Amino acid sequence: MTPQDRIRNFCIIAHIDHGKSTLADRLLEKTGSIDKRLMKEQLLDQMDIERERGITIKLAPVRMKYVKDGKEYVLNLIDTPGHIDFNYEVSRSLAAVEGAILLVDATQGVQAQTLANLYLALDQNLDIIPVLNKIDLPNADVPARTKEIINLIGCKEDDIIAVSAKTGENVEKLLDRIVGVVTCPNGKETGSTRALVFDSYYDDYKGVVAYVRVVDGVLRKRDRLKMMASKTTTEILDVGALVPKFLSTDALETGQIGYVVTGLKEIEGCRVGDTMTLASVTQVEALPGYKEVNPMVFAGIFPQEGGNFEELRDAMERLKLNDASLSYEPEQSPALGFGFRAGFLGMLHLEILKERLEREFQLSLVVTVPSVAYHIYERGIQQQKVIKSPIDLPDAGHVDRIEEPWAHLDVITPVEYIGGIMTFAQERHGVYKNTEYLSEGRAILKYEIPLSSLIVDFYDKLKSMSSGYASMNYNVFEYRPADIIRLDILVAEDPVEALSTFSYRDDAHMLGKRIIHSLKESIPKQQFVIKLQAAVGGKVVAGDKISALRKDVTAKLYGGDVTRKRKLLEKQKKGKKKMMELGKGKVHIPSEAYLNVLKR
Could you tell me if 170 and 204 lie in one domain? Predict the structure, then answer.
């Protein structure tokens, strides 16, 4: 048996909250990879945000050792996120492994993201191990969920392992199955060295640290490495495995997953998806990297203090290294100064990135209203122009037509919620296609829907109207003509650029009213009346006022004639009138107000 024959590389894929991280904990425990006293829940979720929210955001590799029939096997696990906004993390993990555990919650069954992740795994020709989790819960329906999985992937009933990640029941059986079913790596040990970079991050002392899967050859300490796409060369400072802490070894051999400390201080030098080889190798073919991910949601990110732009740029560069699905370009706004127009995979992705920038880099930010990318065709010019910000939308007189992205939407739901969900999707301009039944009592609704209807609060509303049972998945497939206008928001008669948004012409009044209502609750009162208006072109479509703060000038009176009171009130009235004549005041809009508008 060669060392390669004893390696098993696999990942866990599932819908959000189906117990991936808990199962990873049990696998670490059963293989004795972690000391009992160091064990804690969701051990591989390293970020504070992950632990607070109870979701996995970053993929996390870990190496375990498992003995079966007197032979020791090396198991490399990659724990992956479940939320739709982080499925790029999943696709990168799948390219680095040979097998996948398809985890399904025995109480909830197959969900939308389970399907999406399964299709990604099948595209990579991975060995799939179907597993039912949470069988210890009283409402677990193992026979019904088993049927669902059989219908989905066409496996036999014996192929499905029922486990409890919480209690550890049947986890050893799963470890035996991983060793028996997952194919061992088949790289060339003596060939030219090639390793796939599937993740990386920046360390102030070590420079860029890359997580790699060695496909062919071997990487050793002090070897001179070369990145094939960026042509960067550097010396390897350290290599090793994650157990889950860093364990330095002499070399990373064919088929192994581990880390490489490059010492690179230029972040551009080592990108996710690049092929790592040795500087001495002349002829070698690069590994197929990852296809560029298309951002779905665009928003402007600006520092509250103009002088913090450089800090924001450094922070964005570091996060880009750690989050390969983030894309951004510099943007200048007359109102907000210098910042970035960033592309995200969804609203949760935007929310998490904003939180990470504020926590990890101590930045105060203004985030503009998110939008999707539209295709604009101007009159007399048939060339297509892509715009991501409402500020870039030309005057209506110059626009021939605007096209917006449409997505295929799959909603998996218990049948009792179908009526409400169909009404909701119709309100959001969705076009119904068909319904498929997964099992008794559960169906998949298929829609075509504008992406702009999905990005902000569709998922939240869907969850609340289905008591948390429905799940969704979408993918953009084409652009279609749309009647889109720019809705401007004026506070104290000053346009606030960060609040400008795209809107359907028919929805402008309702959207304007909603934004103004949100601002009225968020902006504190001033000494003067603040006008709030929503306008399309020069026409105001919605408006409201925040009344002036009334200072009690009669508080110091403690008796005497009523004329004294009247005199003070008249004096205050004249002062207010004078303030109004001098012109409108400058209103500071707190950052919570921007966020409240984002959340609609």
Answer: no
* pLDDT tens by residue, 12-25: 888 877 788 888 88
The domain boundary, picked from 311, 334, 367, lies at: 367
Cα 403 to chain center, whole Å?
25
How far is the C-alpha of 212 from the C-alpha of 318, rounded, in Å? Answer: 18
Torsion of CA 47, 52, 58, 64, to 10 degrees: 80
**CA–CA separation, 504 and 495 (whole Å):** 20
> Which residue range is the domain that position 39 belongs to?
3-181
Q: Where a domain ends, among 251, 278, 305?
A: 278
- Residue partners of 531: CB distance under 8 A and separation at least 6: 490, 491, 492, 493, 543, 545, 584
The domain that contains 463 carries what CATH number?
A: 3.30.70.240
Amino acid, single-letter form, for residue 17: D
For the segment 199-235, what is each residue's pLDDT rounded down to a tens digit? 888 888 888 888 888 988 888 888 888 888 888 888 8
| 264 touches 232 (CB < 8 A) | yes
Least confident of 12-21, 211-220, 291-300, 487-496: 291-300
Residues 511 and 569 both lie in one domain? yes
CB 484 within 8 A of CB 400: no
Domain count, the chain: 5
Q: Which two tokens stand for residue 538?
A: 């020069």
**pTM higher than 0.90:** no
40 vs 116 pLDDT, higher one: 116
CA–CA distance, 258 with 61 (Å, rounded to integer)? 8
